[in-house]
Amino acid sequence: MSQPVLVVLGAGPGLGLAVARRFAQEGYAAVLATRTEADAEPLAQTLRDDGHEALGVGVDLTDPAEITGVVTGIGTRYGRIDALHFNPSAWREKDPLHLTVPELLEDVALGAGALLPAVQAARPFLGSGARVLVTGSAAADEPSAAAASLGVQKAAVRNLVTSLDATLAPDGIRAVAVQINGVLAKEGPFSPPPIADAMWQAVSRPDDGWSPHVAYDG
Fold first, then answer.
1. Which of 113, 133, 143, 162 is in the most buried spot, having the most CB atoms within 10 Å?
2. Quick one: pLDDT at residue 196?
3. A Pfam family for this UniProt protein (predicted)?
4. How many other C-beta atoms lie within 10 A of the C-beta of residue 76?
């Protein structure tokens, strides 16, 4: 396939769809992965209605084996993956005095750990110039005590992006976490479209002077 391919893991009707639309406007075919194919296909249909190539797939992001199988299947189907957008996080309203170790590890496994099998499975299909894009959050630096696991997830995934970028860079593949320093909204600078545009700008930078961390301040 000559058309570049974007895979969005943890897609939804907000930022995930907006990122897929922004990449589609640049000529990418978009694969949107949600918990079930039934949830993903309407998102893909939205892009197809606009004339873009899009596919919806289901994946359980708490199951590393399933992540591996789905990402490998996408790469095999298209013969390439040019951008992998990792978007999931777990919201659990528990402060540090009530959050248990199993709950913390469960949330971090989704919001950070799932990136590992995703990139490992995508690696054979990532060519020079491919990008790994991660949705970051100000919670990495200013966590909410009411949802303590979220800050740990975002700090962990940002750290992981640094290691991934250093590992992939010799082959011309780069990784970046775009840290959203604000609360997502339906309108304004923290609505999905301008954030998606910032994410496109982050991945379309040249390798010279590359940084694996980009802040979006609206």
1. 133
2. 98
3. adh_short
4. 10
Answer for the pair 212, 174: CB distance below 8 angstroms, yes or no: yes
CA-CA distance, 121 to 142, in Å (whole number)? 32
Q: What is d(CA 39, CA 58) in angstroms, rounded to the nearest whole number?
A: 8
CA–CA dist 22, 178 (Å, integer): 15
Distance CA 218, CA 206 (A): 22
In whole angstroms, what is the distance from residue 28 CA to residue 45 CA?
Answer: 15
Confirm if 24 and 52 have CB atoms less than 8 A apart: yes
What are 132's two structure tokens?
Answer: 């790994």
| CA separation for the pair 178, 127 (Å, rounded) | 22
Handedness of CA 73, 161, 186, 144 (dihedral sign): positive
Place of tokens 């406007």: 25
**Cβ–Cβ < 8 Å for 153, 115:** no
Share of the chain above pLDDT 70, in %: 100
Joined together, the tokens standing for residue 2 give: 């000559």
With tokens 């897929």, the residue in question is 20
* pTM of the complete model: 0.96
Domains and CATH numbers, the chain: 5-216 (3.40.50.720)
Q: Residue 90 corresponds to which tokens in the numbers above?
A: 């777990």
Q: Which secondary structure element, helix H or strand E, spans residue 159, and what is its range?
A: helix 148-168
